[in-house]
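Hi, here's the filled form for the chain we discussed.

Project: internal
Contact: R.S.
Residues: 285
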Amino acid sequence: MADDVFDEFLLGGELPVRRLGLGTGGLVGPGYCGPRGTRTEARALLLSAVERGVTLIDTADNYGPGLAEELIAEALHPYGERLVVATKGGVVRTGPDRWHAAGRPEQLRAMCEASLRRLRSESIGLYQLHRFDPAVPEAEQLGALAQLRAEGKIRHIGLDTVSAGQLRRALEVVPVAAVQNPYNLLDRSSAEVLALCAARGIAFLPYYPLGSGALARESAAAVAAVAAGHRAAPGQIALAWLLHHSPVLCPTPGTGSLPHLAENLDAAQIRLTPQELSGLEALGE
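And the returned structure, exactly as it came back:
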C-alpha cells in the first residue's frame, strides 16, 4: 500500500486529511456530559494532536453539550488551512447517555449555527447528521443540510449511524462525503456500508475503533502475537488494522490522556504483513 494512500484521504474528493485523526468524546465527562479534567489539560491534548500532524478532529455539538466545540476553538482557533474540524448536529442531549433525535429543518439550522459560533468559524469542514430523526422525512433533513451547504456554512455533508439503504437514498439527494458507523476488529456489522463507501469514494469514520476500549486490552492470541512482534500495544494493532483494511477508513480514536494520544498516533507507523492481516481478519468471522 502506497504511503500517500495509507496516510491521507481526500474528503469529498478534494480536501486532504490525515487518515488517523482525533475524536473528542474523551475530552468530556461520562455519558458525554460535563467536563473531564481541566480545560488546560484538554487544550494541551488538542494542541499536541495537531503538533503530531493530526488534520481531522471529530466532535459533536452534544459532547458536553457544547463543551468539546468550545475547547477546540480555545485551543486551535484560528485554524490552519489543513485542519478539518468535523462536528455533528441532529441530537439533543438531556443528560449522561440520554439524548433524542431532533431533525426538523429549523432545528438542524439552529444547531449548525450554534456550532459555528462555538467553533468561531464561518464554515464547518464536515457537518454530520448525528442520527436520522424517524419523525421527520429523510429528504427534509438532507434538504436542510443541502441548504446550509449552498449558503457556505457547511463544506461537506456526513451521516452518522446509517444503513446501506439510507446511504443509497441520501446519495440521491445530496453529496455525502463521510459516514460514521461502528467498525473495528471485532465488529464488522457495517461491512455493507463500508463496501458502499469504498465504491463511492466516501470516507468511513469508524466509531468505537477500539471497541470502547476493549481492543486496547484485547488478549486474543492473534492480537497479542501481532502486538508482540511489533513491540506495540493491542490498541495500536487494532488501529493499524483499520488503516490497512480499507483506504476509506479514517479512524478518529478519542482520549483524554497525552500518553494514550501518542500511543494511538504511533499506530500509523505500523505496517502489517499479509500473514498478520490474515490472522486479524479471522477475528471478525
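Let me know if anything looks off before we file it.
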